[in-house]
Structures are given as C-alpha cells and as structure tokens.
Amino acid sequence: MTIRIVVADDHELVRVGYAGLLATQGDFAVVGTARDGAEAVGVCREHLPDVVLMDVRMPVMDGIEATARLQGPHAPRVLVLTTFDLDEHVYDALAAGASGFLLKDVTAERLFEAVRIVAAGEALLAPGITRRLIAEFARLRPKAPTQGTLEALTPRETDVLRLLAEGLSNPELAGRLHVGEETVKTHVSRILSKLGLRDRTQAVVMAYETGLVVPRTG
After folding, report:
1. Are 82 and 63 in contact (CB under 8 A)?
2. Is 87 left (phi over 0), alpha (psi -120 to 50) or beta?
3. What confidence tens digit (pLDDT) does each residue in 51-76 have?
4. How many CA atoms lie within 13 A of 43 on its CB side?
5. Beta bridge partners of 6
6. What average pLDDT does range 20-45 have in this prediction?
7. pLDDT exceeds cutoff 80 at 122
8. I need a labelling partner for 71 at 20 to 30 A (CA). Which of 54, 96, 97, 164 fits?
9. Is-contact 164 204, C-beta < 8 A?
10. Inter-CA distances, 137 with 1, 40, 55, 166, 178, Å
C-alpha cells in the first residue's frame, strides 16, 4: 500500500527537505506541497492524501484552521509540525482534529515511522508525549466538565476511554481489564464511532476536555 502525503510549510527549505526525505521511501508518494494553510486545503481536496505534514504558523491561513477545514469523511490524518514540544498551538491543532505532532528536528527514521503509524490509524509515536502535552494545556486552560458528550458510552467503554487517556497501550488495557486484545480493539472502535472521533489521540483530547480525566498537578 502506498501512503499518499502532502507537505505544508511556508519555509521552502523545510518543505522541499521533508518532501525529498519522504520520497526516498518506496511506500510513500508525495502528491503535493503547500506554502500556506489555504493552499494546503486546496491541494488536499485535489489529491486526497492519506497524511498531511502541517506546519502551525503559516500565512494566509494557519495550520490549525487548515486542519479544522480538512475534517470530515475521508479526511487525511494530520501530523502537526512544531519547533517546541510544549507549544500551545499544538494543543489547538490536536483539538481541531490533528492526529499528533512532530518536532521539526525529528530524525528521518522517526519521521518515516510517524507517517506509517498515523496512516495506519494508530496513536502517534509515544502516546505518553501527546498525553502529557494535552494534560499540560488542560491544566493551564481548564474547561468546565461537560460529561453529557460521553453519555452514549457504556460503563465499560467509559473505563476504556479513561485508561486510554492515561496512555495505556492495547496490551496494557487488556491486562488491566482482564480481556483479550481483540476485545480492547472492539471497545476502542466503538468509542471512536460513538463519539465521532477518528483516532485515539482525539479520544485522549476529549477525555481531558470533558473532565473525565483530570490533569495531574504534581
């Protein structure tokens, strides 16, 4: 299977550099590049990529707005590119629908791994990193709990979502709940379907934003 990719960054050297690196992989096809968010949306609608590498700070339309506009049926999975690992804009991008984030100084192998993982629908790289990022900004920008959005979940599904937000992998979830991994996958799939989410990263965001999980202060 070939993973179709779009690279969006307003710096030409960064944009061309990422595109060139990705093109060295036999299972990747860079189908387009973009200099700003508006162009990224247009390129994605024309070429229907599987994954978008999306810079946050771009002219005309930033990466957050572009990510939000790309959401919907058959939307690509968005990897946000950032210079700092605790960048408030990254949290906003995750809330807008991004599947995760990458630091711009990422190694080539880590970049390739991230694209493949996200294209497969899994959580990006080390879930704990994204989880800590989300927890930090949930702590800094607390929201009133809105449990109503979780009412569609069964008690077991709510437990699974809570454990997902703690960063547990499928094997760890299976061990904690004393069930098989296939059962865990079924629970996760139903949670995403009921809440209208596309991946585990978005589920973690919702768990914090609804107050199901409270960020640790220590």
Report:
1. no
2. beta
3. 999 998 899 999 999 999 998 878 89
4. 25
5. 32, 52
6. 96
7. no
8. 164
9. yes
10. 36, 27, 19, 15, 32
- Closest Cα to residue 104, out of 171, 9, 1? 9
75: tokens are 């939307």
For 117, residues 6+ apart whose C-beta sits below 8 A from its C-beta are: 123, 124, 125
pLDDT of amino acid 218: 47
Q: Which residues contact 126 (CB under 8 A, 6 or more apart)?
A: none
Which pTM does this prediction carry?
A: 0.72
Q: Count of CB atoms within 10 A of residue 14's CB?
A: 15
Give the HSE-up count for residue 177: Cα atoms under 13 Å, Cβ half-sphere.
25
Which of 179, 139, 138 has the alpha carbon at shortest distance from 160? Answer: 179
**pLDDT score, position 125:** 42
Q: What is the DSSP secondary structure assignment for residue 122, as one 8-state letter? A: P
What is the distance between the alpha carbons of residues 135 and 154, in angstroms, rounded to a whole number? 24
- Name every residue whose Cβ is closer than 8 Å to that of residue 1 and which is 6 or more positions away in sequence: 27
Contact 100, 118 (CB under 8 A): yes
DSSP-derived secondary structure for 181-209: HHHHHHHHHHHHHHHT-SSHHHHHHHHHH
